[in-house]
Design goal:
- The complex is a heterodimer of chains A (244) and B (436).
- With 244 residues, chain A is mainly alpha-helical.
- Chain A has 7 helices and no strands.
- The longest helix of chain A is centred in the middle third of the chain and has 38 residues, at 65-102.
- Chain A is globular and about 60 Å long.
- Chain B has helices at residues 31-54, 62-70, 79-105, 109-139, 145-164, 171-190, 194-213, 218-229, 284-294, 301-307, 310-320, 332-337, 342-347, 355-369, 373-397, 404-431, and strands spanning 237-239, 352-354.
- The longest helix of chain B is centred in the N-terminal third of the chain and has 31 residues, at 109-139.
- The chains are: A mainly alpha (244), B mainly alpha (436).
- The interface between A and B is large, with 74 and 52 residues.
- Chain B: Homodimer. Probable component of the gamma-secretase complex, a complex composed of a presenilin homodimer, nicastrin, APH1 and PEN2.
- Chain B: One of its GO terms (cellular component) is endoplasmic reticulum membrane.
- Chain B: It is found in: Endoplasmic reticulum membrane; Golgi apparatus membrane.
- Chain B: Probable subunit of the gamma-secretase complex, an endoprotease complex that catalyzes the intramembrane cleavage of integral membrane proteins such as Notch receptors.
């Protein structure tokens, strides 16, 4: 539906990511590099997942339980990848601290660490939005639009853009929560992230039912808002207790 | 609540609201890498845009139509002819690089300069003009022939001067001119048939690996010559703006360096000299190679198209020459021991990347764009990842390294994996509106 519609869908999915990038990440080159490497990381995990599932595709469209298994395995794999990312990040943090000591500059402060985890999360969210939404948007720049049978009220592109927006928020802020949880060894944070991810992914299963996208998509946005609020509260707590 | 007064000698960073936090290393770390990743990304983006606009099947450009009719019925686009073409190209590039090393050895500065200027003008005028015409016709922009005939040579002359003599123009213009040359050459390469492009990329990656690391390789010979004479390698090199490590800000130091007397400026600004074997004058062997092919049978259509652009091919030879330069990197050891002398050493930590690397990265991404955008994103991330790995290796080994092999390998690998594995998976999930 013309370039304007295509650009509109892209901005729905990626608008907050652009503002986060321009406002926070572009100012510090290291965060840009973190973003690029975490995007690459997520892409590699997605390729591994698709390699594992290659033999089982295409799934029969009638049954819904293969999709459940797909979602469960994918979320479990990605949470495992998040742990690996955390390990890598710890190594990089050690190297950065050693470097800072050598050139007699202050070590990474709390804000810096949170910024790095924000960049990592944004990389994951950006990769999700790019591969699940943006790369399928090419027909939207043309002259027609596309509706999926099970969701006949909204164009496919709009639904996928909104879902990508929800997941972008979830990925970005759950990375901050997760890094904080792993660093402080707080069980509540560590549990929160996989649970939210799982619930959000399972919620997209509602889209399998006819007309389900009208319910599933707003619920996903509720999950995104929940993640945002939890992250806000956690960061506020950390910063105030750090200042005192 | 601000912690108020001057911090003690121990640097304890207190998050002061309002941006008053002490500058940590995170502010400026990694800046030189970003200054290379940025232009590489821009070049790839412009090539992808050009490919998307100009290669749509609805209105095939006259150029691709001509190429398609030449290699009609798929006679040309198979593996063997692709390999032959790629092999021919690599052989010619090797020969041209050896010739360049020879000329550099005999210090033929005028011919190097003249040829550099000629090739820049040719790429910008012929290729650039043709692409402008294609864009004008495709986008139906209203521009009459007289204005075009006035604008194009002027723009070409300005860009060519900017590309070839960087000392006389602002650095932004110089870098823009280099990027323009890279974009035009890369777009031209994407017009080759598919198998030929892939074979060419892989062949160039292997050539790069051999030419730099094997002791008798042409690029290594050239590098050693340049290093023992302490001169710059004569070719089009993209140099990122150096950053002063002592200040946290982006202070442009390149202008403050003192260029030594003489033609060679071994410091910041990019070198002017370039050599090229002009197929008309200096390299009769190439011309002989060219003539019989013009009358060859259609089975050699591939080779004909590529060899019909000898300047392009040899351009690539010269553009391929400079790799990532082993400048003394902006590392801990240097800045510790040379604090007083900081300006000279610190600012020479700029990363140099040969224009040929820009071109081949963009060719890979442009060819991926001809399939689908998902492959574009995957290949882009793979190339940037490969570039990062190469830069890490550069910081580790501190000698000239080839920039192509890692990135091209990763790019081709990710292209294949995306096309075979990822696309099905993502389509299956997305069309059912299942995301995670």
């Amino acid at each position: 539906m013309t370039v304007a519609a295509g650009a509109g869908y892209a901005l729905i999915a990626l608008g907050p990511a652009f503002s986060l990038f321009a406002g926070v990440i572009a100012r510090k080159p290291f965060l840009v590099l973190t973003l690029l490497s975490s995007t690459l990381f997520w892409l590699v995990s997605l390729i591994v997942l698709s390699g594992i599932w290659r033999g089982f595709l295409p799934l029969k469209s009638g049954a819904w339980w293969p999709y459940v298994i797909l979602i469960l395995t994918s979320v479990a794999f990605q949470e495992g990848v998040r742990l690996v990312f955390w390990r890598l990040y710890k190594k990089v943090e050690e190297m950065l601290d050693a470097f800072a000591d050598r050139i007699a500059k202050p070590r990474l402060c709390l804000t810096d660490k949170m910024l790095i985890s924000l960049a990592g999360g944004l990389g994951h969210g950006l990769a999700h939005a790019v591969f699940f939404c943006l790369s399928l948007l090419t027909p939207a720049f043309g002259q027609a639009t596309f509706y999926v049978e099970r969701c006949s009220r909204m164009p496919f592109f709009l639904v996928s853009a909104i879902i990508s927006l929800g997941f972008l928020v979830i990925h970005t802020f759950s990375m901050i929560i997760a890094f904080n949880g792993y660093g402080e060894r707080k069980k509540s944070d560590q549990i929160f992230v996989p649970v939210i991810h799982l619930i959000a992914a399972v919620m997209t299963l509602i889209n399998l039912a006819p007309g389900g996208c009208l319910i599933g998509t707003p619920l996903l946005c509720v999950m995104a808002a929940l993640t945002l609020q939890y992250s806000w509260r956690m960061v506020g707590q950390r910063l105030t207790e750090h200042e005192h | 609540m601000a912690d108020g007064g001057p911090a003690p000698a121990v640097a304890v960073p207190v998050p002061v609201p309002g941006g008053g936090a002490p500058a940590t290393i995170l502010d400026s770390l990694g800046e030189d890498i970003t200054r290379i990743v940025g232009p590489v990304s821009t070049c790839m983006l412009i090539v992808v845009l050009l490919v998307s606009i100009l290669s749509s099947p609805s209105s095939p450009s006259p150029l691709t139509a001509a190429l398609n009719t030449a290699s009609a019925a798929g006679a040309g686009d198979d593996l063997t002819s692709a390999l032959i073409t790629a092999g021919t190209f690599v052989v010619c590039v090797t020969a041209a690089t050896f010739l360049m090393a020879l000329l550099f050895y005999f210090r033929c500065t005028p011919c190097l300069r003249a040829y550099m200027g000629f090739s820049a003008i040719w790429v910008l005028l012929a290729l650039g003009g043709q692409i402008c015409l294609l864009l004008l016709s495709r986008l139906r922009l209203p521009l009459d022939a007289v204005s075009f005939a006035l604008l194009l040579p002027n723009a070409v002359a300005a860009l060519a001067v900017a590309a070839v003599s960087p000392a006389s123009v602002p650095i932004a213009l110089h870098q823009a001119a280099l990027l323009a040359i890279a974009v035009l050459t890369a777009f031209w390469f994407t017009l080759l048939p598919e198998w030929t492009t892939w074979a060419l990329l892989v062949a160039m990656a292997v050539y790069d690996l051999g030419a730099v690391l094997i002791p008798g390789g042409p690029l290594r010979v050239l590098l050693e010559l340049a290093m023992e004479r302490n001169e710059e390698i004569p070719a089009l090199i993209y140099e990122a703006r150096p950053v002063d490590p002592r200040h946290g800000q982006n202070w442009r130091l390149w202008a403050s360096r003192q260029p030594p007397a003489g033609d060679f400026d071994p410091t910041s600004t990019v070198e002017v000299l370039g050599t090229r074997s002009n197929s008309a004058d200096l390299d009769p062997s190439l011309r002989q190679f060219l003539v019989p092919n013009l009358s060859s049978n259609p089975a050699n259509a591939q080779a004909r198209e590529v060899l019909a652009l000898p300047e392009t091919r040899v351009d690539i030879a010269a553009l391929r020459v400079p790799l990532i330069q082993p400048q003394p990197d902006r590392t801990r050891e240097d800045s510790d021991s040379h604090d007083e002398d900081g300006i000279g050493l610190g600012s020479s930590g700029a990363i140099k990347l040969g224009l040929g690397d820009f071109i081949f990265y963009s060719v890979l991404v442009g060819r991926a764009a001809m399939y689908d955008y998902m492959t574009v994103y995957a290949c882009y991330l793979a190339i940037i990842g490969g570039l990062g790995v190469t830069l890490l290796l550069l910081a580790f080994f501190r000698k000239a390294l080839p920039a192509l092999p890692v990135s091209i390998t990763l790019g081709v690998l990710f292209y294949v994996l995306t096309r075979t594995l990822l696309e099905n998976f993502v389509m299956q999930c997305s069309t059912n509106l299942l995301m995670f």
